[in-house]
């Protein structure tokens, strides 16, 4: 939630606005400084309409890449706010492990901007945490982002639409099949919301999309429950082959006057 305008001057006096990445002074409690904003890598176009893999210039919108044609994903597209690089990694770590949940409005605005025509007829569902991990961390970062996106788009939020009823090990270092085995049967639809999923259009929200194993497990469950469409929204997407193209586009944008004011506020 944003700071109410009536108390914003008091908050700014006690906690002077600072860039969450470098600490430089800002004019408001939101966004990044100009230098840090330029370090974020925003997915560029043209790209695959399903997975965001970059295409050569001139490819038409809606084109699907060869890997997605060979092994069609169960989802209806990934909308990543940024590509995973040093800048986005620092923001995610500060948000998730540094407990800086005040970053949620900023992160979610970047995510919502990539979602296109998502509106009130969609359901927003976060990737679930197991109750023990939720207890240790104190919050589900995906749920906080989902709440902000639902509010921004006027969509319905089902914060407990999915349940992770079985603990899963860390997926780091595991291969594709091992990840799938680890997640098999671990995620299910909350029985209280099963009826809402039939014919629904769903946005699945997470902070980072890496191998896609967890998201794929969630999408499969939503599809079996009857969801008509499922799109994935994340703040950062691990897609190394897209980074050079995105960084070139970002440098071009920040060399002029096109940096969005809502994202950059500098003292």
Give the SSE map:
Blueprint lengths: L7 H7 L19 H6 L26 H5 L7 E6 L2 H11 L7 H9 L10 E4 L4 H7 L3 H13 L2 E2 L4 E3 L11 H8 L3 E3 L4 H4 L3 E9 L3 H12 L4 E9 L5 H12 L13
Parallel strand pairs: 1-7, 2-3, 2-6, 6-7
Antiparallel strand pairs: 4-5
Helix pairs in contact: 5-7
Describe this protein's structure.
- It is a single chain.
- By secondary structure, the protein is of the alpha/beta class.
- It has a single domain (8-254), classed as 3-Layer(aba) Sandwich (Rossmann fold).
- The protein has helices spanning 8-14, 34-39, 66-70, 86-96, 104-112, 131-137, 141-153, 176-183, 194-197, 213-224, 243-254, and strands at residues 78-83, 123-126, 156-157, 162-164, 187-189, 201-209, 229-237.
- A five-stranded parallel sheet has the order 1-7-6-2-3. Strands 4-5 form a two-stranded antiparallel sheet.
- The radius of gyration is 19 Å and the shape is globular.
- Residues 249-267 have low confidence and may be disordered.
State the major sheet: 5 strands, parallel
The CATH topology comes to Rossmann fold
Distance between the termini: 22 Å
Q: Give the % helix.
A: 25-40%
